[in-house]
């Protein structure tokens, strides 16, 4: 599931960056640099678009975390299926808007481009907090910088043969992080290879909807996710 969600993020990120306007909706590190570059170069419209994406992504994270925490406080089950449904609906508006408005790539972004970017970034912010762990391994499905840092940390500890309880879990962690990162890159590669048709953006909401149904029906996944979120929130012991 984490690999597929990462691929969805990479696909949407690459398609919009290549064929709508050169602003990221998932890779916020890239947007922060672009804000600085465009301000320095006098590209105020593009800088504003990148800043809008940063804000929309942050709001998406806040909405997702607030939903999870609200469920826990009320003693209700915490599941990502509702958030995945919301994300799928948001992702569905992207091709609809692009087909309806018939816009071409524009740099700097116009009104429709900015709307698409804001919706996409909001959806990615929700996804970033919808699934945070694979078992006890923290993962990120919408960006790769932190993942690369963690892979480097684990590799350095392995090279130094640093002692650690559960030595086998280090290699497992690296393996999971690498394949999730590969999913993100792979999604971007597929988007680039398939072309510019906005119809292709119907693929991500279909994938998201499928996982939402799976999570809703799989009680085992629901229980594991509930426990994982409780640990993350600090309500149960967790060995980071």
If you had to describe this structure to a student in words, what would you say it looks like?
There is one protein chain. The protein is mainly alpha-helical and 240 residues long. 73% of the residues lie in helices and 2% in strands. The protein is built from 9 helices and 2 strands. The chain has helices spanning 2-19, 28-41, 44-73, 81-101, 111-130, 145-159, 167-194, 203-217, 219-233; strands at 133-134, 137-138. The protein has a two-stranded antiparallel sheet with strand order 1-2. Strand 1 and strand 2 (137-138) form a beta hairpin. The longest helix is centred in the first third of the chain and has 30 residues, at 44-73. The protein starts with a helix and ends in a 7-residue tail after the last helix.
Summed up, what is this model?
The chain has 240 residues and is mostly helical. The chain contains nine helices and two strands; from the N terminus they run αααααββαααα. α4 packs antiparallel against α8.
Please summarize the sheet with the most strands: 2 strands, antiparallel
Shape: globular
Q: Structural class given helices, strands, pairing?
A: mainly alpha
Low-confidence spans: pLDDT under 50, at least 5 residues? 235-240
**Measured on Cα atoms, how large is the radius of gyration?**
19 Å
Strand content: under 5%
The beta-strand count equals 2
Helix content estimate: over 70%
Tell me the series of helices and strands, N- to C-terminal: HHHHHEEHHHH
Oligomer: single chain
Mean pLDDT: 86
Strand order of the largest sheet: 1-2
Query: Total number of helical segments?
Result: 9
Query: Termini distance?
Result: 21 Å
